[in-house]
């Protein structure tokens, strides 16, 4: 029953995120640009986007805290990582994944420490996007044609990030890391595309809300992928789930 509910949540958030992304495209390409673009709108939206990127960095640095909040909201508290293998026979957690070969494609080693590939990618993408947003707001070019191209590149990047666990070629840790970067950079390119095309405050505000929803979706989809891997595992004495 719990497994069925978990899959439902994953499918619901993935589909609703994609619908939201398609609605964003429909809104920007079917609406006319406002005659006046307030000078404060760009800095305001850009600053809020930077704050969202910072929240993504926090989620990447402390994924267990973020995941626990989501589990509490969805009433799924049975999948807590435990770290007492030595005394209680429970598998240790590294990089917020169990220290298990089944999760080897989700982590990587750096200077003797284990890191989550997906979270590291999100952090890297968020850092680049923050500097990119600051640089763009400082220069502020304007080209509707370039804006459209950047928007569709961002559309592709976000879509790949949301479908990360469903893509057949994502079987290596570097692929998870790269798609994490692509996901956040995709959101940044969407924002730049919207601004280049002179979108309204309502559309850009909708994009910001959607960006927060995408972060939540990524967390839930990651949890669902972890459950799937553990459910397919033959070990019965792991204790991680």
Structure description:
The protein has 241 residues and is mainly α. The protein has one domain (2-231). It is built from eight helices and four strands, in the order ααααββββαααα. Strands 1-2 form a two-stranded antiparallel sheet. Helix 2 (41-61) crosses helix 3. The radius of gyration is 19 Å and the shape is elongated. The model is unreliable at 66-91 (pLDDT under 50).
| Mean pLDDT score | 78
* Content of β-strand: under 5%
Radius of gyration (Å): 19 Å
Oligomer: single chain
Describe what is shown at a glance.
By secondary structure, this protein is mostly helical.
Attribute tags:
mainly alpha, two-stranded antiparallel ribbon, 5% strand, 241 residues, elongated, 8 helices, single chain
What layout of secondary structure does this protein have?
Blueprint lengths: L1 H29 L10 H21 L1 H12 L10 H4 L4 E2 L2 E2 L8 E4 L2 E4 H23 L4 H19 L10 H24 L4 H31 L10
Antiparallel strand pairs: 1-2, 3-4
Helix pairs in contact: 1-6, 1-8, 2-3, 2-5, 2-7, 2-8, 3-8, 5-7, 6-7, 7-8
């Amino acid at each position: 029953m719990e497994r069925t509910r978990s899959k439902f949540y994953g499918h619901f958030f993935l589909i609703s995120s994609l619908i939201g992304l398609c609605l964003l495209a429909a809104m920007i390409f079917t609406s006319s640009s406002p005659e006046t673009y307030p000078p404060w709108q760009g800095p305001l939206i850009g600053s809020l986007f930077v704050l969202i990127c910072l929240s993504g960095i926090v989620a990447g640095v402390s994924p267990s805290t973020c995941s626990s909040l989501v589990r509490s909201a969805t009433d799924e508290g049975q999948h807590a990582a435990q770290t007492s293998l030595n005394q209680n026979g429970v598998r240790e957690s590294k990089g917020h994944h169990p220290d298990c070969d089944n999760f080897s494609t989700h982590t990587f080693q750096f200077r003797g420490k284990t890191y989550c590939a997906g979270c590291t990618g999100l952090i890297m993408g968020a850092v680049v996007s923050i500097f990119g947003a600051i640089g763009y707001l400082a220069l502020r070019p304007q080209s509707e044609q370039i804006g459209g191209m950047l928007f569709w590149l961002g559309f592709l990047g976000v879509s790949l990030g949301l479908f990360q666990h469903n893509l057949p070629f994502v079987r290596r840790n570097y692929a998870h890391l790269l798609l994490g970067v692509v996901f956040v950079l995709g959101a940044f390119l969407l924002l730049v595309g919207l601004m280049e095309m002179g979108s309204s405050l309502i559309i850009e505000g909708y994009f910001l809300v959607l960006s927060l929803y995408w972060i939540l979706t990524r967390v839930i989809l990651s949890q669902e992928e972890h459950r799937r891997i553990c459910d397919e595992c033959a070990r019965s004495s792991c204790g991680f789930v």
